[in-house]
Amino acid sequence: MSSATVNDATLHYHDIGPKTGLPVLLIHGHPFNRSLWLPQAAALAGAGHRVITPDLRGYGDSSVSEGPVYLSDFADDLAGILDHLGIEEAVVGGVSMGGQIAMEMQRSHAGRVRALLLSDTSAPAETPEGKAFRNRLADRLLAEGMDGYADEVIDKMLAAYNVTAMPDVADRVLRMMRTTDPRGAAAALRGRAERPDYRDTLAATRCPVLIVVGADDVYTPIAEAEALHQLVPHATLSVIEQAGHLPGAEQPVHFNATLLDFLGTQIPHSMARSAG
User: Rounded to whole angstroms, what are the CA distances from 268 to 14, 88, 135, 192, 254?
Assistant: First the structure.
């Protein structure tokens, strides 16, 4: 594990695979950490790609900031990590909140984005009801901690049938949620409540885009993924069967095959060869 000081925060990350490989930056969702991407990092690095998996500000081993942390703050942090590593452009992917941070990277740091992976995420701005919910949840996590929340949402983060069918995966996801610092989770919830609408950004996107969704995702169902695909007609849409909100954890073999195929067929070979 490595670290960098970026925008007055200490950010921890893994950087694996050949330094000459195509850089792939994978962004975890809330309330997780970089270990969410372990199956993808191993598969991509094994295929010759350079994989960077950071702990976002306030999550995992990275430092916690006071006050709201906006999606633009996360995106600026990630651009700073790329600067620290000397990487001009990367494939930028994220799941859930991480997907929205990837969209923010496309909005505010488009020159750094070679291609996008958007997994189980949505583009519209938060609704008034959603803003109120996220701020109430932030208050609750600060008052009660993460354990009760983790137990309540595990059968939504994973497809309910996978909680019992995949106990090792459920335990790993629960452990990430329970060990997240409530202050970091609350700061991100308050910032995410104020997120902009990314639909115009996506409609103007010309780089390759892969949209992935778990077939039984209750947070961002297939209809959300189809709405993203309508905004970006040239994108590739893949539905992962037998998965919920975290298909990369629930069905890593299928997810990894989909991502590797995208990287192999949609990224120009000359660009991939010159990466790093």
Answer: 25, 16, 43, 33, 23
* Number of neighbouring beta carbons within 10 Å of residue 252: 19
Given a contact cutoff of 8 angstroms between Cβ atoms, the answer to whether 15 and 50 are in contact is yes
pLDDT at 276: 42
14-32 residue pLDDT tens: 999 999 999 999 999 999 9
- Residue pair 214/246 in contact (Cβ under 8 Å)? The answer is yes
Query: In what side-by-side order are the strands of the sheet with 209-214?
Result: 2-6, 9-16, 50-54, 23-27, 90-95, 113-119, 209-214, 236-240
CATH among 3.90.480.10, 3.40.50.1820, 3.30.420.40, 3.40.630.30 for 2-273: 3.40.50.1820
Q: How confident is the model at residue 223, as a pLDDT?
A: 97
Local structure of 196: helix, strand or coil: coil
pLDDT exceeds 50 at position 210: yes
**Other CB atoms within 10 Å distance of the CB of residue 118:** 33
Burial class for 178, CB neighbours closer than 10 Å (0-12, 13-18, 19+): middle
Pair 215, 241: CB distance under 8 Å: yes
